[in-house]
Amino acid sequence: AIQLTQSPSSLSASVGDTVTITCRASQGISSALAWYQKDSGKAPKLLIYDASSLQSGVPSRFSGSGSGTDFTLTINSLQPEDFATYYCQQFNTSPLTFGPGTKVDIK
Amino acid sequence: QVQLVESGGGVVQPGGSLRLSCEASRFSISNHGMHWVRQAPGKGLEWLAFIEFHGNYKNYADSVKGRFTISRDNSKNTMYVQMDSLRTEDTAVYYCARGRGQWPSHRFDNWGQGTLVTVSS
Predict the structure, then answer these.
(1) pLDDT tens for each residue of B22-36
(2) Distance separating alpha carbons of residues B68 and B82, to the nearest angstrom
(3) Least confident of A72-76, B44-48, B54-58, B65-69
(4) CB A103 within 8 A of CB A9
(5) Nearest to A96 among B106, B113, B114 (CB)
(6) Which residues of chain B does A32 touch, with a Cβ-Cβ cutoff of 8 Å?
(7) N or C: which end of chain B has fewer CB within 10 A?
(8) CA-based torsion, B29, B31, B36, B42: positive or negative
(9) B74 phi/psi in degrees, rounded to 5
């Protein structure tokens, strides 16, 4: 199975900051990567797919980049509702796998 | 707005069985591959199982293969997972999710709110 690692595992930031989260795959996955936001007690929300495509309805302050093994999620001008845990997911190969998550909390 | 609602969670003893349901509304599941994903307490997300449009192809994570069975009834717009031989490590919130793309290139574009399964004696 393809393993995904994320860094950092957690970070503290302030409203208005720019945040970057990295996801690394154990082998090349082309652009078959998605990013999700997960708030405690809520359903995950798809933010980015195909590494850089913004899901409909997601604010443009979210962006993704990368291909192969290294990917990033960037959140510009962090808003109060963005404090949550973020997961990457690869869909290049079954089994579909998720990264361990990056928790973004308030500084 | 697309909606997925899971039900059937609860407390079960180790070795026991449970069946979860996922009812969809405002879209037809017959046009989509569907998935089950879970999150154990304090852990990350884990994909469990996939079923294609008509139920003829299914795929499972190794952790549940042989114990869980995914199914669907398109006439009821509902997906299921039959969970047998449950273990304490199966304790989690179980989510159903709609797949987008061509298997296995699926991202999950809509999720239910989840149902809690607790396996404990």
Answers:
(1) 999 999 999 999 999
(2) 5
(3) B54-58
(4) yes
(5) B106
(6) 105
(7) N
(8) negative
(9) -65, -30
Share of chain B above pLDDT 70, in %: 100
Mean pLDDT for all residues in chain A: 97
Instruction: Outline where DSSP puts E strands in chain B.
Output: 3-7, 10-12, 18-25, 34-39, 45-51, 58-60, 68-73, 78-83, 92-100, 107-111, 115-119
Q: Quick one: closest CA in A to B44, which residue? A: A100
B22 interaction partners in chain A (CB closer than 8 Å): none
pLDDT tens digits along A3-62: 999 999 999 999 999 999 999 999 999 999 999 999 998 999 999 999 999 999 999 999
